[in-house]
Design brief:
This protein is 29% helix and 24% strand. By secondary structure, the protein is of the alpha+beta class. It folds into 3 domains: 171 residues, Aldehyde Oxidoreductase, domain 4, CATH 3.30.365; 185 residues, Alpha-Beta Complex (Aldehyde Oxidoreductase, domain 3), CATH 3.90.1170.50; 324 residues, Aldehyde oxidase/xanthine dehydrogenase, molybdopterin binding domain (Aldehyde Oxidoreductase, domain 4, 2-Layer Sandwich), CATH 3.30.365. A 7-stranded mixed beta sheet has the order 3-5-1-14-11-12-13, with helices on both faces. It has a 6-stranded mixed beta sheet with strand order 9-17-16-15-10-31, sandwiched between helices. Helix 11 crosses helix 12 and helix 11 packs parallel to helix 20. It is globular. The two termini are 40 Å apart. The N terminus is likely disordered.
Length: 796
């Protein structure tokens, strides 16, 4: 409730908290700001806290039909027959199977240089074969959602079992005739790895696994399609992180022009990477709206969400490191198996690619080789989940660093310090690429942040205290994780800003909101340049009918890319306004300023002035003939970048282990993060705290489990355990701005994922320390059952 309370400005808690955030944020930028860097309250929260949120389930149209999906109950099998006669007799409007949607191609994936993935894309309805429990085999349409559900239960599907693959470590099988279940192998290498291992004095080897889990949002997926026959426009109302890309994909799948499809973003009860992509259900509601000329609504239930929404994370790594006698890593060699599930979905190979490219983390690794086996299994398809590939790779990298410390007898913090890339080496070029973009760490002081984090938590005193507790019989310990993130995905973003005759400022962007505060951040950036209060700015986003191009919100890109475009657009508008003001005042442009929405002479705030509203009124089309200027006080801004920014952080956790039950209690958690420059420190803290909670879920609780036949066993929230307030400590947060990014005009780095990346690694390190055995934790999540097995093996 803490962040909802922030909207009640009369509470003393608000000003105290905002003051603390502003005091503890160390600004490193030379840009003079009035709005940027302030922990102001969010613009988007009023409808959310007052019951005015516009979520998918609350959107309805007259005459709408309701869609229900009939899902496969076999993990792999040949479809023999589908009988819809009883459902049709029950009174439903229609039942579709694959033969009814033959004109719709399989759902494509984003552009990639990886070849040969096309045969592995998912059809909107299973055609001849089902490949996971939960795959759509038919859809039912009815006048009422309950009628649709009842009718779906009456559809009879006969399936003949085929061999099931539930483990990516198994030898590849047959996906279809002529196609293996290993579509590709990801390989990256630099340096003479084999020679280094032949001569290395110390070799460390580990076998590590990350369990299958994902974002499980409070709000399940939903989509509402409406076809406006009079305008020949198809509307889709849904949560989306990539509205323009999704519009274009739908246009290709439905054989329509992009301009005839409009996407409208709803509020979203959790995105986390798994929502806002194109799923089969999104295509089907749109096709149905076109065919029936009626609105069609689909809302999934919780079981569907757990078996049909994208999964993520599951990987198995066999990694080794060659190390010198001083604990310095000379080479890393990793082979991993990535469990993609049944199909290649819209993200393609992004998670496996990110794992392979980011595994060396913040460390200097002279030679590196990775082989990633990208394999399909008969489980729910996998894709991105917050910090995709980095949660996995950070767990592996940091476990390796702890193992190096144990093998060499060097303190684990000292081992990390000796291997960290130095501030003086920035920008640091690593001869490896991620999706054809070379890894170039733009800026950073990794050792400096490590020192600040250790000082903030009082490491020496903390560790002395833990030793005393261990001496009295408690199993307590501290763990550490250092990581680098990758953010600011380009290559371009654009924004349009307009001042109306009432003085309001509208920012129109192709970005989307997944709850991260995009409206507030973009308003602060625009207001800072234009010399107005951020509350005068209205941000329009997630609507393809308002702006021609857009790149959405994903990969921690919005503040970097859209924020930079907003900054440029605001500068262009400011220049336009000052130029007109200079003509009006017969003055030089550099003698004018904009303060509180008024153009004034610098140093003469009480003198002659003109407001932005008055200027906008003078630029209406009717006034154009008199002024000779183009109408409208408006400007666009485009930001182009082929470079990424690399935020980084240090996490420290203190845990207590119950040796009898295997329960792990997280007593303290510190997250230190450098974002280059914080537009709104409060929003950064909110992102990080939420990330840590999700990371703890993946570290200790959350896992999608399957039986040997591919049947999912985690189909309710009683089976798929998620962290509650009881499991998440009061996260301590240290925000620094010591390394502004040189890749964008504001020095920003992404902040949406840095709180989750190292959590699994940090908790594993702390558990090892608590039970006194280095390298004990090799698998996530560390459930009580798994920890008890470890303790039994130790004779505890």
């Amino acid at each position: 409730m803490e962040y909802f309370d922030l909207q009640l400005e009369e509470l003393p808690l608000v000003s105290d908290r905002l003051d603390r955030l502003e005091r503890t944020t160390s600004a490193a930028s030379n840009v003079t700001s009035t709005q940027i860097g302030r922990a102001v309250t969010r613009l988007e929260d009023l409808p959310l806290v007052s019951g005015g949120g516009r979520f998918a389930a609350s959107i309805s149209f007259p005459r709408q039909l309701h869609m229900r999906v009939v899902r496969a109950d076999h993990a792999h099998g040949k479809i023999l027959s589908i009988d819809a006669s009883r459902a049709l007799a029950h009174g439903c409007v229609a039942v579709w199977t694959a033969k009814d949607v033959t004109e719709v191609p399989p759902i494509e994936f984003r552009p990639t240089s990886v070849k040969g993935l096309e045969p592995y894309c998912q059809p909107v309805i299973a055609r001849d074969r089902v490949r996971y429990v939960g795959e759509p085999v038919a859809v039912v349409f009815a006048e009422d959602p309950y009628e649709a559900e009842d009718a779906a239960d009456l559809v009879s599907v006969e399936i003949e079992d085929l061999p099931v693959i539930v483990d990516a470590d198994q030898p590849p099988g047959e996906f279809a005739a002529g196609y293996s279940t290993e579509p590709t192998v990801i390989r990256k290498v630099y340096g003479n790895v084999d020679e280094i291992f032949r001569t290395a004095g110390v070799v460390v080897e580990l076998d590590l696994s990350i369990g299958r889990h994902s974002g499980v949002p409070l709000e399940t997926r939903g989509a509402i399609a409406n076809y406006d026959v009079a305008r020949d426009v198809l509307e889709l109302h849904a949560a989306t992180k990539r509205p323009h890309a999704n519009r274009d994909m739908l246009a290709r799948l439905l054989h329509r022009t992009p301009s005839s499809i409009h996407l409208y973003e709803c509020h979203i009860g959790g995105g986390f990477g798994v929502r806002g992509e194109i799923y089969p259900e999104d295509v089907l509601v749109c096709l149905a709206a076109l065919r029936f000329s009626r609105p069609v609504k689909w809302i999934e239930d919780r079981r569907e969400n757990l078996i049909a929404c994208n999964h993520s994370r599951q990987q198995h790594h066999c990694i080794r490191a060659a190390v010198d006698s001083h604990g310095r890593v000379l080479a890393i060699d990793d082979t991993f198996f990535h469990d993609q599930g049944a199909y290649v979905r819209t993200h393609g190979t992004r998670v496996a690619e990110g794992t392979a490219g980011m595994l060396p983390g913040p460390y200097r690794v002279p030679a590196y080789r990775v082989t990633g086996h990208y394999r399909l299994t008969n489980k729910t398809p996998a894709a991105t989940y917050r910090s995709p590939g980095r949660y996995e790779s950070t767990f592996v990298c940091e476990r390796l660093m702890d193992a190096v410390a144990a093998k060499t007898g060097i303190d684990r913090i000292e081992v990390r310090r000796r291997n960290l890339i130095a501030k003086s080496e920035m920008p640091y070029v690593r001869p490896v690429d991620i999706r054809d973009h070379q890894v170039v760490m733009d800026s950073g002081d990794y050792a400096g942040l490590l020192d600040k984090a250790l000082a903030r938590i009082g490491w020496d005193d903390l560790y002395a205290h833990l030793k005393r507790r261990r001496a009295s019989g408690e199993a307590v310990g501290a763990g550490i994780g250092i990581f680098v993130e990758r953010s600011g995905l380009g290559p371009v973003d654009g924004v349009r800003i307009t001042v109306d005759s009432g003085g309001s400022i509208e920012v129109v962007t192709g970005a989307a909101s997944v709850g991260q505060g995009v409206e507030t951040v973009l308003a602060q950036i625009a207001a800072d340049v234009l010399g107005v209060d951020y509350r005068m700015v209205r941000v329009v986003h997630g609507r393809t009918d308002r702006i021609d191009y857009g790149f959405g919100t994903h990969a921690a890109r919005t503040t970097v890319m859209t924020g930079s475009a907003t900054h440029i657009a605001a500068q262009n508008l400011r220049a336009k306004a000052l130029k007109i003001g200079a003509e009006m005042f017969d003055a030089a442009v550099d003698t004018l300023d904009i303060v509180d929405g008024r153009i004034i002479r610098k140093g003469h705030p009480e003198g002659a002035s003109v407001t932005l509203a008055e200027l906008a009124s003078m630029l209406t089309p009717a006034a154009m003939a008199k002024t000779g200027r183009d109408p409208g006080l408006t400007a666009e801004g485009w930001f182009h970048s082929d470079a990424h920014s690399y935020p980084y952080g240090v996490h420290i956790a203190v845990v207590r282990v119950d040796r009898e039950t295997g329960d792990v209690k997280v007593e303290r958690y510190l997250a230190a993060y450098d974002v280059g420059r914080a537009i709104n420190p409060m929003l950064v803290e909110g992102q990080i705290v939420g990330c840590v909670a999700q990371g703890l879920g993946g570290a200790l609780l959350e896992e999608f489990v399957y039986d040997p036949n591919g049947a999912p066993l985690s189909t309710t929230l009683a089976d798929y355990l998620m962290p509650t307030a009881h499991d998440v400590p009061d996260v301590e947060f240290l925000l620094t701005e010591d390394a502004p990014s040189p890749t964008n005009p504001l020095g920003i780095k992404g902040a949406g994922e840095g709180g989750i990346s190292p959590v699994g690694a940090t908790i594993a390190s702390a558990i090892d320390d608590a039970i006194g055995v280095a390298g004990a934790v090799t698998q996530l999540p560390v459930t009580p059952m798994r920890l008890r097995a470890i303790l039994r093996g130790l004779g505890s």
